[in-house]
Design a protein that fits this description.
The protein is of the alpha/beta class. Helices cover about 40% and strands about 20% of the residues. It is an enzyme of class 1 (oxidoreductase).
């Protein structure tokens, strides 16, 4: 078996995240392609959390239900994952903790850690066990641990090195008992996997924003988007940006809008419940024609919903947010690479069209991580559209494109007037009916027409001459792509949208060429299907929807597609 799925399951506070961090990094160094995804309850301690780590000689980038190796670190782990455990799952657990459970390989983590000095070393012991089972060099792991804990002090470093040795000894006994795990490392010689970039979706969004020239970020902490704000706060000095934790989401969006007015390039990051408070600010950006980038890390609602789970439930919220009519752009990355590229792209588009630009991710995508060879910093080059004003400058001057030259205070001789009221070309308030009509058309129709000329086209994966067509957006991308490879159905294509609004003018061409169009979405109503029907009149009959707070698994998608194709 080449592709292994390893799951660690225990209580919040047991340090599963630390084990995941150590393992994904050392396994990559050891020439494994890695992927990890988390599911966790919304509490600091207690509850049951799990992390899946997939390893393979080939790239792996999607969540699977299958568990090959389960490390049960709590007495509730096995019951928590019972639906994913099969007869072929190897279960490892400390019988002092989980009790006498049939078909569990005893792993005396508690006793071993206490001998070292504290139960907290059980994490590092577990990492040692897993690395030995996967034939990772102990020398390489010890060198990694030296760097990983180098700031923790000599005593802690020494204890962790001892924990690694104890983990290898425990694994050797397991191997001597007949357990032999034959995991295959990458045999690709064209690149060193150890030099690959290992990053999460939230890191990619933050880095993409920085690559796009972002120099201001504001937000009020709200999972799962908090990680973006945390990353940019951590590196604010290195990148010369202002990272502001505001008192609430209303302040956050107004700060981001203000940063653009002053000549900066600002973003705010939030989740659906926080964005609900930002809608008035979205309207202000629309009326004032001020750029702003809004990142929404989606999670299940309504209200607080499932704060640490995943869902694609905020497409319609972002599409219809704000009172009145004005143009907007909505991007939906489906991979870590696209998290970077589209976040970068968002800033140039906001600047050019002077509109709100949304980046829709979700908990699954933000928290998953995998290794990639590199990122092309030159893709979507930074473009800036601020002009130096003259004395007769008019902020809202009419133009053929609907886009007025944008000046900023202090750059040129012109007077910069921006307002949330309806206004004339200079920015002064007006209630003139003719001007009102022209301004609405400027902000809505003319800008939308220009946006449609620069639409990012969807990617067609699978069969190019398809008979059946899957439609998906955002984080379903990699899951559906792997499902297609397993199905091996030569008549099945998958159209992945990374820009969900506005849609390309050629949208109908994709739809009418298929006998069956099947939408796959992580929400209850088929929000993207609804948008397609609104824009094209095409009603997607077949829908694969999931809305229990969990992402699709590859196996689930394979099964559901087979059911639809057999109808």
């Amino acid at each position: 078996m080449e592709d292994f799925s390893i799951v660690l399951c225990g209580e919040a506070g047991q340090g599963i995240e630390t084990i995941e961090d150590i393992l994904t990094k050392i396994l990559k160094i050891s020439r494994y392609n890695v992927f990890s995804a988390r599911e966790y309850m919304s509490r600091v301690r207690g509850g049951i959390n799990s992390t899946e780590i997939r390893i393979s000689p080939k790239p792996v980038r999607a969540y699977v239900d299958r568990i090959d190796l389960l490390f049960a670190l709590s007495n509730k782990s096995i019951s928590h994952l019972k639906d994913r455990i099969s007869d072929s799952t190897l279960i490892f657990g400390d019988k002092e903790v989980i009790g006498e459970v049939q078909n569990v390989i005893d792993l005396p983590l508690s006793k071993t850690a206490k001998k070292i000095g504290s139960g907290i070393y059980a994490n590092t012991v577990t990492a040692g066990v897993i690395c030995r089972l996967l034939n990772v060099s102990e020398y390489d792991l010890r060198n990694f641990i030296l760097k990983y804990f180098d700031k923790k002090g000599e005593e802690i470093l020494k204890k962790n090195l001892e924990a690694i040795s104890q983990g290898y000894e425990l694994a050797n006994k397991i191997i001597e008992s007949g357990v032999n795990i034959k995991a295959k490392k990458s045999d690709e010689l064209s690149r060193d996997l150890g030099k690959d970039i290992l990053m999460s979706g939230k890191d990619a969004v933050a880095l993409g924003a920085l690559a796009g020239g972002c120099n201001f970020i504001s937000g009020y902490p709200m999972s799962p988007a908090t990680g973006v704000l945390s990353f940019m706060s951590k590196y604010s000095k290195e990148f010369g940006i202002i990272a502001e934790q505001s008192e609430d989401e209303i302040s956050a969006i107004n700060m981001a809008i203000g940063s653009w007015y002053a000549g900066g390039r600002g973003m705010t990051t939030t989740s659906g419940g926080g964005f609900a408070l930002m809608e008035e600010g979205v309207s202000l950006a629309g009326m004032a024609e001020t750029p702003v980038v809004i990142h929404i890390g989606q999670r299940p609602g309504p209200a607080t919903g499932l704060p640490t789970r995943t869902e694609q439930g905020d497409l319609e919220l972002s599409l219809y947010s704000g009172h009145g009519d004005f143009a907007r752009l909505i991007l939906s990355p489906g991979s870590i690479e696209d998290c970077f590229y589209l976040s970068k792209y968002a800033f140039s588009m906001a600047d050019k069209f002077q509109i709100p630009v949304f980046i829709l991710t979700d908990q699954y995508l933000l928290d998953c991580k995998y290794n990639i060879p590199s990122l092309d910093h030159n893709k979507y080059p930074i473009k800036r559209y601020v002009i130096k004003t003259e004395k007769d400058y008019q902020r809202y001057q009419f133009s053929k494109t609907g886009i007025s030259p944008r000046g900023i205070p202090g750059f040129g001789e012109g007077l910069i007037i921006q307002t949330g009221n309806e206004h004339d070309e200079t920015g002064h308030t007006t209630e003139n009916a003719i001007l009102r009509k022209k301004m609405v058309e400027k902000r809505l129709n003319e800008k939308l027409n220009q946006l449609k000329n620069e639409v990012i086209y969807p990617e067609l994966l699978g069969a190019k001459a398809y008979k059946f067509l899957l439609i998906g957006w955002g984080s379903t991308r990699n899951i559906v792509e792997e499902a297609l490879k397993q199905l091996k159905e030569p008549r099945l294509g998958f159209l992945y949208f990374k820009q969900v609004y506005p849609l390309p003018r050629e949208m109908m061409g994709y739809l009418i060429n298929s006998q069956k169009v099947i939408a796959i979405e992580n929400n209850a109503s088929g929000q993207f299907s609804n948008l397609i029907k609104r824009e094209t009149g095409f009603d997607i009959k077949y829908k694969i929807l999931k809305y229990n707070g969990r992402p699709f698994s590859v196996e689930e998608v394979v099964s559901k597609i087979k059911e639809v194709l057999e109808e």
